[in-house]
Amino acid sequence: MPILEAKGVRKVYRGDGVETEALRGVDLKVEAGEFTALVGPSGSGKSTLLHLLAGLDVPTEGEVFLDGVRVDRLSRAARARLRLEKVGLVFQAYNLLPVLTALENAAFVLEARGVERRVREAKALEALAALGLKDKAHRYPRQLSGGEQQRVAVARALAAEPLIVLADEPTANLDSRTGLALVERMKALNEERGVTFLFSTHDPRLLAHVRRVVRLEDGRVVGEERA
């Protein structure tokens, strides 16, 4: 059974009397252990698809499954709980809390789950160490570079040991060298620990590091390649 699956997913946004069709019948399966990139031009539907897969939104038509549970039929609260337990999210804007240290930010999801402090801090520190940030654990976001802040965001996703990490353009705000270093870290975690990753990107330089590329155009899957 795939970790994630979209079946005939269509998403239409409506506003001011105008309809915008962001996704036009997308089918996608993601298996455990994959390291997959969604690629396509701006407006192709990459972010929309990730949001639907994470349960942040629901499709206009079609079905979304996460670990065998049909997400689009759940209430908003139930989707949030499932996401908290099963999914690690990484956004372009980092979304770190400025009043928390890197360690506290990395432990945030575990705290939301009610995990005791000693356990959550140990898991968070382990995740930071895996991303080369153990020595920055007690620094605040303002004391970190953009690349370091994005790695803290990845550590936050990993510390909770999710089924899958979904990352929306994780290197978009990084220079090419820092972005490549982040993807190499993510790939190492995939290969060494079996962490499943699905991330969107518009950067062709990163594609040499992924095992599967799914191409979107105008809200449709138009092809895929496997390494």
UniProtKB/TrEMBL annotation:
> CDD domains from the xrefs?
ABC_MJ0796_LolCDE_FtsE (cd03255)
Record-level GO cellular component terms: membrane protein complex; plasma membrane
Write out the transmembrane intervals: none
Q: Name one Pfam family in it.
A: ABC_tran
Which spans of this chain does the record mark as coiled coil? none
For this chain, one GO molecular function annotation is:
ATP hydrolysis activity
Q: Where is the ABC transporter domain?
A: 4-227
The UniProt keyword set, sorted, is: ATP-binding, Nucleotide-binding, Transport
Keyword Aminoacyl-tRNA synthetase, does the record have it? no
InterPro entries given in the database record: AAA+_ATPase, ABC_transporter-like_ATP-bd, ABC_transporter-like_CS, ABC_transpr_LolD-like, MacB-like_ATP-bd, P-loop_NTPase
Its recorded name reads Putative ABC transport system ATP-binding protein
| Organism the protein comes from | Thermus arciformis
